[in-house]
């Protein structure tokens, strides 16, 4: 029988080897991250437009987001003083360096970074420590998100050459994940997970082989730096059996998003949670985000209008994504995701994982983690 041991990341120990996926805008903030950390997992706050509730957000986006990073971490720590809490920070966002540095200064235990290759992450972390003018009791752990052995090799090689470091943890995000995906439509098709994307069409064996390849790459760099670098897998993990499968491949933990959306503690609006519960298998689709990246979401009136060429009015630019032209984008992704967070679901982009249609009720974080660990009879 596969034993589910604590996830050990250097001197950081996650008693229950479950990392809650960072979900933005406003889906995983202090309430969810704090609850997951308190239950023994790793709670992750999404930095994406984290300050959207600040009164000056529209006029002072950067300042509002920086304030919110510190505030959300402080509030999460109050829920779980001894828990493992960190941030998910997307490479594709503008001012990426500022969000990373503020997360370090806030006392984050770990930074998970994807939506692009986080080649400069170690540099920004070191800059933050320099600005703090003091060495922390425990250095923040750095975890790039990869989707292939090739991308894992690129990250490890560049960090080794430029910064003489290796990742502390590697997160492998598969093609069944939610939100922005680290795959082109062509790659998704290779794994049987394109727009007809439900678990029944997923070629798990093909991606399992990729996961094993990534683990081998990571082992090589762990050996070079005389350290152990654990690998955590993400995407489509919903049950205890799914967790056991990932551990059987050699993973030492799992990252889970969808299961935590429909919890009492999730920071999302009740309407957003209900959208998951009401969704059918056919409602889960892969769409194109305003910057051209594939993303998985629930089909709703908003997506239907976008598909038919109905472009909503864009009144302001929130400086969110690096490669975004307000003149040509089909809609503002910040507005669409904020609408989701506050409950205006008919005018929202409802990001989700491939298993969102399987959610049937509102649960608690504690029960979700226990079920994933096989602790509920």
How would you describe what is shown here?
- With 377 residues, the chain is α/β, with parallel strands linked by helices.
- The protein has two domains: 275 residues, Alpha-Beta Barrel (TIM Barrel), CATH 3.20.20; 86 residues, no CATH class.
- Helix content is 37%, strand content 14%.
- It contains 13 helices and 13 strands.
- It has an eight-stranded parallel β-sheet with strand order 3-11-10-8-7-6-5-4. A three-stranded antiparallel β-sheet has the order 9-13-12, with no helix packed on it. A two-stranded antiparallel sheet has the order 1-2.
- Helix 3 packs across helix 4.
- The longest helix has 21 residues.
- The protein is globular.
- About 2% of the residues have low confidence.
- Keywords: Flavoprotein, FMN, Monooxygenase, Oxidoreductase.
- GO terms for molecular function: nitronate monooxygenase activity.
- It comes from Clostridium porci.
- This is Probable nitronate monooxygenase.
